[in-house]
Every structure is written in structure tokens, then in C-alpha cells.
Amino acid sequence: MGIQERKQRERERRRQQIAVAAKKIFSVKGFNKTTMEDIAREAELSAGTLYLYYKNKNELFASLSLRVLKFMNIRLEKVTKEPDQSPEQKVMSLKGAFYDVYEFDPLIVINIFHLQSSEILKNLSPDLLSQIKVLSQSSIALISSIFKEGIAQNKFIDRHPVALADIIWGIFSGIVLWEESKRIIDDKKEYLKQTLDIAFEIFAKGIKK
Length: 209
Known about the structure:
10 helices; globular
């Protein structure tokens, strides 16, 4: 192994170390109360070391989304390329894909939804913002391809596929955030899966011709 490769591996290992610490502190203290110093202590690193990898807390917070967005794209691509499923079946398979993404990392999925409506995105480095945009746009494109297929086969109402993709994404994000807010009041109640089942059932009926 060459020196350059060792350095790269060390950088990736350190990034993972920081990410694990950040997730833990963000989940305990929340975004607003967390400081880079808190994360550095948890990662057993100096605050200066963190700033070698991330310019600020916003960058670190947003960077945690990349791994989940990549998994989402893999999961959605699997749904869209299923050869034996009709467009109607693929829409229902989206429900399973979305739930798998949530289960993959619930905290970061919730972070992604908060990012959508925050000022954080406006203050990211161009490179990180570009990565998030590319992955997010890819997800919407994959979802909309299902609706495009259904419209072409005269099985779905003739509406813009991207608009339909935005609606189903809005349903998913809205339900996750709402159910999460209810769990703060009563953490024994878990209705996410059941609520998604009902929402997708109603949506699927609504877009049929």
C-alpha cells in the first residue's frame, strides 16, 4: 500500500469517527445545542482536527445525509428496474423502499427532511451542496420514472411525473416528521408503517385512471 493510499484510508477512517460522534451528539442534544467542541470531545479529537474536515457545524450536519441518500438511490433503482412488476405494483413497492430507507438510519432520514426546509443548505460548500443536489435529484428522477411509465401505459392519470414524485415524497416526509413528533409525547406508540400503508393505498387509488 502506497503512502497516498494510506493517507486516504486514514482520512476516511477519521471521517467515519467524526460522523459516529456527531450522530450521537446531535441525537442527544439536538442541532442547535450541539457545538463542534461537543463532537470533538465525543470523537476524542481536537476541535481543530474537525475543522480540517468540515468548515462548520452545518457542513457536518448536512454531510451525514450523503450515506442515506446513496442508499436511497440504490433502493429506488431496484424498484424501478423490477422487470415483472407493473407500474401500479412499483408504486406500492415504493412504500417498502421508503420504509427501508427510514429503517436504515431513522435519525439521519429525519435530518434530511429538516434540511429541506432550513437555511443550512444555503450555507454549505459548493461541493457538498452539489453532492446533495445530485443525489436528491436522482431520487426524484427514479420515482418519477415509475409515474411516467404508468402514464405511458394509460394506467395513471395524465399529470406531470415529477409533480407526482414530489407529492409522494411529500407524503413520506410529512408522515415521518409527524409520527416522530407524536413519539416525543408517547414513545410507546409506533404507527409509521401503518400510516404509510394507508397513505400509499389512498394515493395509488387516486392516480389510477
